# Entry
Amino acid sequence: MKTIEAVTYPVHFHSQSYQDLSNLIAKNNYSTIFILVDENTFEHCYPKFIPNLATDKRIEVIEIESGEINKNIETCIGVWNAITELGGDRKSVLITLGGGVITDLGGFVASCFKRGIDFINIPTTLLSMVDASVGGKTGVDLGVLKNQIGLFANPEMVLVDTSYLETVNEREIKSGTAEIIKYGITYDVKLFNEIKNNKNLKINDLIFRAVEIKNEVVLKDPKEKDLRKILNFGHTLGHAIESFYLESENKDNLTHGEAIAIGMVCECFMSSKLLNFPKEKVAEVKETIVSIYTKTILLKEDFTAIMDLLKHDKKNVNGQVNFVLLNDYEDFKLDCKVPEELIIESMEYYNS
# Structure
């Protein structure tokens, strides 16, 4: 599988990529290699990764607790302190070995430490392979508000080794599949059809095409001024739903993909009301989503809290919530204003 050239860095695929990684480390003559993991990737992925790292440089492992709830500034401070205590300097490099939390937080940590050290992303979940590790967005949550603190910063390299997917459960695979569905609905409907029909599903090909699409979009619009906004489809309402479940003490958390899947159904429904997105395609998306994910009923008494969180979405301008909506598959409209009553109606449609 060929290398994808991103804005300033390559995205390598599979086992031969480890030689590229070793070459990069030797070329840049890093002083220390820091590897950021959580307890899961340290147990299941680190033993698989470390034999492939050919270097005589000093290696230090920094472990954080897993989960979106730990994607915050407090965790960053802990990592910054660890790097400092272990003698990190401006010639250090941070390798992120993990899912979306690790790559988002690790990139942010590296970009801020001593005004920026190099980092390398090695995603180990489907979600991080097709989304979080590529595109140059880094950041952490502010309380339950998703990705409120962060910056654009590119890694030196992304290494996608799909054998790490053997270490994650089916729920995490489904979480990442939501992002691939998003690319299919907004950009290349062949991807959506492959998942919908589930015939001879080749996950490696889906991953490559998803990364290719994200890279094509980011190359055209690195700072999300225009086209890159399509990558937010399903995320505007989806993030609010994810945040609500994250802060609710009496509810189980949703994965990122589960929340985004709900958001996509709702935003397809909004599209049908505002832009004449075909109703049969709304039903098609809903049927596909419900067939993949355990359905979570959004209680009416929770709508107000979800709407309140929606008002804090980082993409809002002048207090106005902006949605990406659809005229049709592969035909989108940016910065759509949606009446509050229609947002609520869309959640009722999802429940029905």
Residues 19 and 54 are 8 Å apart (CA to CA). The chain has 14 helices and eleven strands. The chain has two domains: 4-167, 170-351.
